Amino acid sequence: MGVMTSWADRFRLRQYVKASLWIVPMFGLVLGALLAEVALAVDSADWPPSGWHYSATTASGVLTAIVGAMVALLGFVVTIGVLVVQQATGTLSPRYMRLWYRDRLQKAVLATFTGTFAFAFSLLRSIESASVPDLGVTLAGAAVAVSLVLLLIYLNRFTHSLRPVAIAELVSRMGETVFTDGAAAIRGAAPRGDGTVPSDGAVLRIRTVRGGAIQAFNVPGLIAEAARHDCVFVVTRLIGDFVPPGTVLVEVRGGTSRPDPERVNSFVALGAERTIEQDPAFALRILVDVAIRALSPAVNDPTTAVQVLNYIEWFLHTVGSTRLPGRYVLADREGDARLVLPGRDWDNYLELAVCEIRDYGGSSVQICRRLRAMLEGLLDALPPSQHSAVRTQSLLLQEAVEREFTDPARRAVAEQADHQGIGGRYPSATGIRTSHGPNPPLTPPEGHAG
Known about the structure:
The chain is α+β, with helices and mostly antiparallel strands. 57% of the residues lie in helices and 9% in strands. A five-stranded mixed β-sheet has the order 1-5-3-8-7. Strands 4-2-6 form a three-stranded antiparallel β-sheet. Strand 7 (327-331) and strand 8 form a beta hairpin. Helix 2 runs parallel beside helix 5, helix 3 runs parallel beside helix 6 (134-161) and helix 5 runs antiparallel to helix 6. It is flat and about 85 Å long. The protein starts with 6 loop residues before the first helix and ends in a 36-residue tail after the last helix.
């Protein structure tokens, strides 16, 4: 396949570039040096006006100060980055760091600082007693002003966006975008008829050569490859699964010829950890991690967990409003089934969202009340086909409350639904309270032993 030529290699390279904090600043460094040469060339054309001319001593002093200032500011931003890493891994979630590395503003600030440094340093060598780069010195001052403005924006941004609620909003929006885009792509590739997959004949099993977490599938590439061999590819593992070397990843059913296993593997990107590109459940995983970290005895901050639950509920309303069969059949342009992808169903998403928060926060009145309000809201908003899983989680929540709160009075408080955890009950416009004392457990799904 050659080095760095397959789709999987290109995907991993894109992930590296997105997460890298040095590539964009390096471009800024090179661009600053090039712009210095341009400024020197333009300066010989008797511009800028005479009011902007500098003596050699002044120009040298200004440029020297700018070089030192940019080095100091770079160190300051790096220090902030270290503090962000410490906070994110200590009080939020290490998984969030994969998203923080991609922040474009941070890379723009670093690139501006390195570019200004290279620009000023390159101009220093051209200063002579009879030759001063007046235009370059003026532009260097303007670059410092831009750098300071970007630094203030950067400080303002991260002062506000590092709060757990801001991170929850960012992550939930990203997850919602990935989910809706993926759902639209699946609808657009629906097969003709029922999309029957051949079940007879020999099955070719394609195994992975290297191990790692499944980060993404090249869906158009897999469909085109299956159409070329007139077969159907059945993917056996979910995006986000970790697969050891030798795992059966694709089953080939039917076909007029045998596809090349190496080529099929090149359409699957494996890496060290999950990414959010095609994995909306990864966003939900981050939200849950932040919530249960807040519920740990070392932090003991259920209010933060309640705030994160607000965005988990938002995400669940988006997911629950979409039909999730758990298995998706995609077709080529002629409408013939070519690719079968496993997917998460509604039960999987809901269990991921509720299970650990209920287990770690079962002794918190806030969490129990907020979870009940969330589950009741899902029952009210989602279609009946989704209700069974919600009732199951509500029954498990009721059982957890009964185990943790043995005193009837405290249990009665914990059983009330409250969108604010504590203090959110209020009279409605009709004079009827939104919560009515102890809420009885929601009806368990048919056949569930209560």
